[in-house]
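Let us work through a complete example step by step.
Step 1: write down the sequence.
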Amino acid sequence: MGMHIDLIGLVVADMGRALAFYRDLGLAIPADADREPHVEVVLPGGLRLAWDRADVVRGFDPGWTPPSGGARMGLALRCDGPAEVDEEYARMVGLGHRSRLEPWDAFWGQRYAQLQDPDGNPVDLFSPLD
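Step 2: predict the structure and record it as tokens.
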């Protein structure tokens, strides 16, 4: 099979607010992208991450509605070490972004924390403990 995952797309209510969150996480997103209906960046390794405004999605899928009751998908960012999980979490919360779970040592051997992007998607920060 010749398929591979090439793009992960997120639907957003407010493009500028969503992109500000992901810029704060370190993604290189041009400042003038805030007014665009569709934005994408190429991540290290070639995977693309994209954002589409809800009105754009409804333009080709009139029956689309945002999920309710919690996210069905999340993103996870690997940090260079356990201390970086704590530092990035504290930095993001200090910038006013929402926390879901404070850093903890998970039973599966990782330092873990969870933020929430402006549209309610969980964004995990993690690193192996050793």
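Step 3: interpret the result. Residues 16 and 32 are 9 Å apart (CA to CA).
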